[in-house]
Write a structure and sequence with these properties.
Radius of gyration: 39 Å
Oligomer: single chain
Structural class: mainly alpha
């Protein structure tokens, strides 16, 4: 039969010894001030990382926009005079025989402008910076949404959103890679068939009586 004379024991509290010789084991409870301060510090660090990405994306978009405008102006300044000079030189050369020398000079100037535009590839560089600008703006918009929503949902949601932002940051196209993609593919010339070292001889059925 159970002994009803035993005194009920009080529940043990973490961090408080039951006897004078028991060691005190400090523990941080879920709702303790120390645990809340740790979570707040981690949230503050993650928010700071998101803000750094926003600043980087804003600066990158501005730089890409300025460079795109520069290369657009360069493309116009080289392409438009080349087209005009080419037309004027052709008209001058056909108008009279005495204007052949000025027409040749204008044709050389047009060829120089055209060669400079082809060498600098201003149109391709403009498209490159346009793509980079859109990528940076997408990253900035997503980071602002994360700072406005996931930053108040919890530390796990904010961490996952920050990983996605870093993936978007890594996906921003590089100038060199985009220019390489825009290059026209090199035409491959088919190699002639390799000649056989010995002429092929027709092999017929062998006659056993021969």
């Amino acid at each position: 039969m159970p002994d009803n004379n035993l005194e009920p024991t009080a529940p043990r509290v973490p961090g408080v010894p039951d006897a004078p010789g028991d060691p005190v084991v400090p523990r941080i409870l879920a709702g303790s001030p120390a645990g809340g301060a740790d979570v707040d510090e981690r949230m503050r660090v993650l928010r700071a990382e998101v803000e750094l990405l926003i600043d980087e994306a804003r600066i990158g978009a501005r730089r890409a926009q300025r460079r795109g405008k520069l290369w657009n102006a360069t493309n116009i300044c080289l392409g438009f005079p080349a087209a005009v000079l080419a037309g004027v030189s052709g008209a001058a050369g056909l108008a009279s025989t005495g204007a052949r020398v000025p027409a040749a000079v204008l044709a050389l100037l047009a060829a120089g402008f055209s060669a400079g535009s082809t060498f600098l590839r201003a149109d391709a560089r403009q498209m490159t910076n346009l793509r980079r600008r859109y990528a940076w703006q997408t990253l900035e918009t997503r980071a602002r949404l994360v700072l406005a929503f996931e930053a108040y949902e919890g530390i796990e949601q904010l961490h996952v959103a920050l990983l996605q932002l870093h993936a978007l940051r890594a996906a921003v196209p590089s100038s060199a890679l985009v220019l390489t993609e825009l290059q026209p593919p090199a035409q491959q010339v088919a190699a002639p068939p390799f000649p056989l070292p010995f002429p092929q001889q027709a092999v017929g059925p062998t006659d056993p009586t021969a």
